Amino acid sequence: MTSADLARIWPATGVRARAGDLELRWADDELLVALADVAARGIHDEDRMPFAVPWTRGTPDEVARSVVSYHWSIRPRVGPEELHLDLAVLVDGAPAGMQGASGSDWRVLRKVQTGSWLGREHQGHGIGTRMRVLMLELLFDGLGALEATSGAFVDNPASSAVSRRVGYLHNGVVTVAREGAAVAHRNYLMTRERWLEVRDRNASLLGAPVELEGVEALRAVLDG
């Protein structure tokens, strides 16, 4: 079976978004193992936790297994009622992290929440900003999204800085349970109208034209 055969049956596997050296694409098992190894080498300092679910705690093998088991669990959940589209982030062909979007009742609401992670060795080079911009292009231009939300704990200023730089609107603060404690969490909102306002500015952050591949087939499934 070729990748084209699989994409014909499960169109999400054929989705690609590219801008210069940056690419988002479906993670097959070989790429998923490589991404798990990136995560196992570390994402954040031990005294920090940027995620509500602390999947980065544990030994390197435990973290790697968390990556693989989670992505295996969401692979079937790409449809009009439930959408989980987590894509590998590659820079110059090398796996660097993941960028995802998820939401319920896509066909009706066209609304998702985005989330991501980057391996520690890939942080601090502007990749987080660029991959968020590229994901928004895929969601709004490729799939016809109406709204995308994001968020970050108050002790994760780097993530909030990405949201602000890309043009998200501040959307309030809520309290979220994290490792047995209540922690303030900032919410951010990107509407379709706002995305159109900041699109040209964000294009300069990518530094190269956006190429989308396989989105028509996926959109047909999601809109079905």
TrEMBL record:
SUPFAM superfamilies documented for this protein: Acyl-CoA N-acyltransferases (Nat) (SSF55729)
Keywords: Transferase
Domain N-acetyltransferase: 41-168
An example molecular function term from Gene Ontology annotations: protein N-terminal-serine acetyltransferase activity
A Pfam match: Acetyltransf_3
GO CC, alphabetical: cytoplasm
Protein name as annotated: RimJ/RimL family protein N-acetyltransferase
